[in-house]
Design brief:
The protein is mostly helical. The chain has six helices and two strands, in the order ββαααααα.
């Protein structure tokens, strides 16, 4: 919903551009939050997150991925982002993460191959934080975020002839009635809320 003075509220189409823009903003906010972790990084925190990453690595079936991936992935990223002292950035990060998470549910993420890739990317993030080099941290975090974005966007908006979930070309937003002009209706999966 977009609020405009003298016009009121407008329901914006949730199309590929909307989703791409949301991911781009989220990616920038995640990198900002991660940068705040660098001065506070410890071997103990690395060890804790390695254990979580190993739990992610153990998700070896589509059913296990669907049931546990989101929770474990947040358990990996949240402690890194917890050092962010920019309250406005944290609020925006929370809003955009919820939006992207809601979008990602339509992709019915169950790929064990993507989980394996993600855990290798997590290893690279941990190693970059060990180095304490902000440029290396930015690069590996951006690579990780970009691969996650591609996986979700391609699942929601499959290329012609590509595989995607049934009804992916038209997704209703949570709590919003579908309108003829809507491009996507984001399906809710209550078991993950």
């Amino acid at each position: 919903i977009e609020l405009s003075p003298y016009k009121g509220a407008t329901i914006c189409p949730v199309d590929r551009t909307f989703c791409e823009n949301a991911y781009e903003i989220l990616k920038a906010l995640e990198v900002l939050a991660m940068e705040h972790a660098i001065p506070h990084w410890t071997a103990e925190l690395h060890g804790q997150l390695s254990v979580i990453n190993d739990q992610l690595r153990a998700l070896d079936s589509p059913e296990m991925v669907a049931e546990h991936y989101h929770r474990l992935n947040r358990a990996f990223h949240d402690p890194i982002e917890a050092f962010c002292k920019n309250d406005r950035a944290k609020d925006l990060l929370s809003q955009y993460r919820h939006l992207v998470w809601t979008m990602s549910k339509i992709s019915t993420f169950k790929s064990t191959d993507r989980v394996k890739e993600a855990t290798m990317e997590h290893d690279a993030i941990l190693n970059a934080l060990d180095q304490g080099d902000v440029h290396v941290c930015r690069r590996v975090y951006m690579e990780h975020a970009e691969k996650a974005r591609k996986q979700v966007i391609n699942a929601i908006f499959p290329e012609p002839g590509g595989a995607g979930p049934a009804g992916a070309s038209a997704l209703p937003l949570h709590g919003a009635a579908g309108h003829a002009g809507d491009k996507i209706a984001l399906q809710e999966n209550e078991e993950h809320d």
